[in-house]
Amino acid sequence: MTHHALRIAPSSTPPQRTGSSPATGTGPVIGRALRILSAFSAQRPHLSLSELARRSDLPASTVHRMLGDLLVWGALERDARGRYRIGLRLWEVASLAPRSQGLRERALPYLEDLSSLVRENVQLAVRDASEVVFVERIAPSCAVPTLTRVGGRLGITTTAAGLLLLAHAPAAIQEEALAQTIPRHTPFTLTDSGRLRAVLAQARTCGYAVSDRQLSTDTLSVAAPVTTDDGEVTAAVSVVVRYGSTSVSALADLVRSCGRAISRALDTPAL
């Protein structure tokens, strides 16, 4: 069936090696398509043509031409009001990402067990450069509200999962993350690189990381590593609880146990 193939119309201008000014709408077609897709966010899941043009910094005429191909392939859909949203076909392809697919499937039974014990948010995250991406989240109805979602990204220094992953990241990644300006979400957000270095060192020593009211004043999170058979930290499992509801040491024991169980599952050949 050819309707699943993404049709890429030839550009009216010669290809440019380095891209071009956003104002002209020229440049690689795939690059423009990615800019359109990147215009969507959790806060703005439905966008009109004019909003897409503004948020992608492309001319409306360029966006209009490309929307047809994106709709046919299934990367985008239109809702009843004529606005655009991410399509199921794009989700289908994205779900094949190896760092989320096999990891999530192997980890899910242990995440569910942990969730039944703590009755709070349980999350699984991986690092992407100097950001943390959440590939799974279990949130009972009684759980404290959080800012995380499946597929969502957060600054790597503001969550326990991010701190744990950064603590085991290459030195260059650590330096890049610590050199960035860190937004202050609450009075407890760690923004000083010296304090953050101490937190990362402690995470490596203790085998778990803690984020104390960094994203919101009523939450605390604790994370532990998921490792490969050669000891590489490939993911982090974390719990997010209401601040003051449970001791950090009790949560640390639970997430470390869950992390070890997931690590063993990853090392077990699939049947």
Most strands sheet:
6 strands, antiparallel
How is the quaternary structure best described?
single chain
Count the E strands: 8
Order of helices and strands: HHHEEHHEEEHHHEEEH
Number of helices: 9
The mean pLDDT is: 86
Low-confidence stretches: 1-26
Share in β-strands: 15-25%
Helix share bin: 40-55%
What is the radius of gyration?
A: 21 Å
Strand order of the largest sheet: 5-4-3-8-7-6
| CA(first)-CA(last) distance | 32 Å
| Overall morphology | globular
Account of the 3D structure:
The chain has a six-stranded antiparallel β-sheet. Helix 1 (about 30-35) packs across helix 2. The chain is built from nine helices and eight strands. It has helices at about 30-35, 50-55, 60-75, 90-95, 100-120, 160-165, 170-180, 195-205, 250-265, and strands spanning about 75-80, 85, 120-130, 130-140, 155, 210, 220-225, 235-240. It is an alpha+beta fold. Helices cover about 40% and strands about 20% of the residues. The longest helix has 21 residues, at about 100-120.
